[in-house]
Amino acid sequence: MFSCFTTIINSLKNLGKSYPNQELVRKILRCLPKSWTPKVTTIEEANDLTTLPLEQLLGSLMTHKTIMKNHECVETKKKKTIALRASKEENESDEDGDMALITSQFKKFLKIQKDKKAFKKYPQKEE
């Protein structure tokens, strides 16, 4: 970020437009993302922006960025991951139980069908 900013400022100086140090410091603080708002507020309250050198500001911002990265690394390491392993077991007793259930249901079905056919074959006479 700083190299791009410096390139633009140097190009403007070559074209005859120069900015005072105070304005450069304010521009850098203004362009930081919202997650940096607490740091920007701290810098504005702790330092006099009119006398704050640009190099000191950049050093402070780079230090803060390094600290933030270290905190992120520590937080990701703290998260424990659990790997679950799936296993497929075939249990013969379950299969036998399932087969017995299917057989009994099929027998009931056949009995019901047999009773229905017998009922249709010999209709009852109404008197």
From TrEMBL:
> Which one Pfam family would you cite for this protein?
Retrotran_gag_2
Q: Which domain of life is it from?
A: Eukaryota
Q: What is the protein name stated in its UniProt record?
A: UBN2 domain-containing protein
Source organism: Cephalotus follicularis
Q: What is the phylogenetic placement of the source species in the record?
A: Eukaryota, Viridiplantae, Streptophyta, Embryophyta, Tracheophyta
